[in-house]
Amino acid sequence: MSDFMLWLHANYIKPQLDATPKQDYDFHFDLIRNNLCATQWESLDKALEFTAIQAFLLGLRTGEGLALNRR
């Protein structure tokens, strides 16, 4: 993963995700975190980071594809 994507996650993607109300998902996040030991939290955070970056890139590619289809 490029340094830029890691920077983008830390400075844009994660703050946006943290600011989003989780409502029905809070229980599930808490359930997972409560069943992990502290050393596994880092692995979960890295997996969530990877997933968020890939979802962001998918959104960019999808948006780009939609723009090409409108021409």
Topology:
Blueprint: H1 3-19, H2 26-34, H3 38-69
Helix pairs in contact: 1-3
Explain what you see.
This protein has 71 residues and is an all-alpha fold. Helix 1 packs across helix 3. The mean pLDDT is 91. The chain is 82% helix and 0% strand.
In short:
The protein is mainly α and 71 residues long.
CA(first)-CA(last) distance: 32 Å
Portion of residues within helices: over 70%
Strand content: under 5%
Please count the helical segments.
3
Please state the CA-atom Rg, rounded to the nearest Å.
15 Å
- Element order: H for helix, E for strand: HHH
Largest beta-sheet characterization: none
Question: Uncertain segments of ≥5 residues (pLDDT<50)?
Answer: none
- Report mean pLDDT, rounded to a whole number: 91
Oligomer: single chain
Number of strands: 0
Tags for this entry?
about 80% helix, mainly alpha, about 70 residues
